[in-house]
Amino acid sequence: MASQNGGMTAPALARFAALLADETRAGFCVALLDGRAWTAGELARHAGVAPATATEHLHKLVAAGVLSEQRQGRHRYVRLADAAIAQLIEDLATQLPEAPGPARTLRAATASAALTRGRTCYDHLAGRLGVAVTDALERGGLLSRSAGFALTPQGLEWLHQLAPPGTSRRPLARGCLDWTERREHLAGAAGAAVCGHFLAQGWVARIGTGRAVRVTPPGTAALTNLLGPDPTWAT
Q1: Which of 28, 39, 130, 225 could pair with 125 as two cysteines, CB 3.0-4.6 Å apart?
Q2: Gap between the Cα atoms of 132 and 230, Å rounded
Q3: Is residue 171 part of a domain?
Q4: Under a CB-based contact definition with an 8 Å cutoff, are residues 40 and 78 in contact?
């Protein structure tokens, strides 16, 4: 008999792990960490597989609750089921060893450098940009890490003036270990509100169709005014 712990069984855990053990399915999940909904066709092209193959993999991920789907007209959109699934994938990534060597092509090296500089981690900022924003919030007395991640009273007021996070059952602020920087960046409802506001204002813009983001020229001035000077958004 398989051992149990809170209803979890070893076979069930093995089945869930097997979902992400497939390179195509893992690639879908990583792509969907940009927080947006993708069509099956878009994911198929991204992974370089046939549409029928992508559909088969997506059925498995949706059935397991890793992805959620929504139909709009003739199109079927999928996205990560929730922030908890996104956190799980990011947490797994932090356990990976450092890349054994440089990227093999200029295109791959450019894409990797862009992700390291700044990216979305589901619905919040990550990479060097996400860590720098988190550090700036702490320097400004808006965030405290003395006992976990928590916005200070001043930080709560600042957030509600910037972008009220609304009501949510998820934590307001939590640390998310960054897999490239190996330091924590701000996640939770506050992280999502900050990221959404920066994108909506055009201070941060997506690079192509992937997860990478960059600070725009107007964003350099806005972030400096909002959070103080920092080399991350001064370039």
Answers
A1: 130
A2: 8
A3: yes
A4: yes
Per-residue confidence at 1, pLDDT binned at 50, 70, 90?
A: very low
C-alpha span between 234 and 232 (Å, rounded): 6
* Tens digits of residue pLDDT in 81-123: 888 888 888 788 777 766 545 555 545 556 678 888 999 988 8
Cα atoms in the Cβ-side hemisphere of radius 13 Å centred on 85: 23
Among the listed residues 70, 82, 34, 29, the one whose alpha carbon sits nearest the alpha carbon of residue 189: 82
Contacts of 102 (CB under 8 A, 6+ apart): 109
**pTM value?**
0.75
Amino acid, single-letter form, for residue 224: T
- CA contacts within 13 A on the Cβ side of 219: 21
Contact assessment for residue 121 and residue 187, using Cβ atoms and an 8 Å cutoff: yes
DSSP alpha helix (H) spans, 64-216: 83-94, 106-117, 127-139, 153-162, 188-200
> Domain end: 81, 114, 138, which one?
81
Q: Does 168 or 155 have the greater pLDDT score?
A: 155
